[in-house]
Design a protein that fits this description.
Helices cover about 25% and strands about 5% of the residues. The protein is mainly α. The chain has a two-stranded antiparallel sheet with strand order 1-2. The protein is globular.
Length: about 120
């Protein structure tokens, strides 16, 4: 279990109207595979260790959650990444059927929930 499990945290509070304090971290590769096997207390401990290397007096989190997409045989940890020049309407169009025979769903079809853990 590496001490640099979580190398980058994103402060989502500034993106929310209620400014609710939320930190998000994306973990990839071997670390993501290890993370999926860990308990909530182990994940919390790793996150706190990472934060405490940079900040003093880090409060304990109220809630911790993560995906286990890597265990999904069909997806293996994938998420939507938009390419240069893509428009928000491109994602919305993915949610439309193709001749009522081919359908797409999930976070890739929404410009509001892209790359999220919404369940």
């Amino acid at each position: 279990k590496s001490s640099c499990f979580f190398s980058t945290f994103l402060n989502l509070a500034k993106l929310r109207a209620d400014h609710c304090p939320i930190l998000m971290c994306q973990v990839v590769g071997k670390h993501a595979e290890l993370l999926e096997e860990m308990t909530v207390s182990e994940v919390t401990e790793q996150g706190m260790k990472s934060l405490q290397t940079c900040y003093k007096n880090v409060p304990a989190p109220i809630f911790v959650d993560w995906s286990t997409w890597g265990k999904e045989k069909l997806f293996k940890g994938s998420w939507t990444v938009t390419g240069f020049g893509m428009e928000h309407t491109d994602l919305e169009r993915l949610g439309h059927s193709v001749e009522d025979r081919l359908f797409f769903a999930g976070e890739a079809t929404s410009d509001q929930g892209r790359s999220t853990l919404d369940r």
